[in-house]
Specification:
114 residues; 4 helices; alpha+beta; YefM-like fold
Length: 114
């Protein structure tokens, strides 16, 4: 299968004087390349259209839900402890501070030098 693509190359002055014509050409699918001193710098092409049809919300209707009843059961204590960062021996897990603080200090010094 062969696709023929039409390409129009115009200089800036011509693009300014006939902009509406080139916009129509771009809407028809033609490729419009704008040049400065015969060197391509920009291309006119149509913007993709935004979807205007409504989205399918079928899975969200009542009675057709995919969440089971177990979803609403309370979490076991060991899972709650894991979410809160508490180890099995009851001690709270602390995140290391040195790595983040050192990076921020370096960034501040770099900004001060600039």
């Amino acid at each position: 299968m062969v696709y023929n693509m039409v390409m129009i190359m115009v200089n800036i002055y011509e693009a300014k004087t006939k902009l509406s014509e080139y916009l129509e050409a771009a809407l028809k699918g033609e490729r419009v390349v704008i040049c400065k001193h015969n060197q391509p710098v920009a291309e006119l092409r149509p913007v993709e259209q935004v979807r205007s049809a409504s989205r399918d919300l079928t899975p969200m209707y009542p009675g057709e839900t995919f969440v089971t009843a177990a979803f609403f059961d309370p979490l076991p204590d060991h899972e709650i402890a894991a979410w809160e960062g508490i180890q099995a021996n009851g001690l709270k897990v602390a995140e290391p501070r040195g790595t983040y603080a050192a990076r921020t200090a370096r960034r501040t010094k770099r900004k001060a030098r600039s």
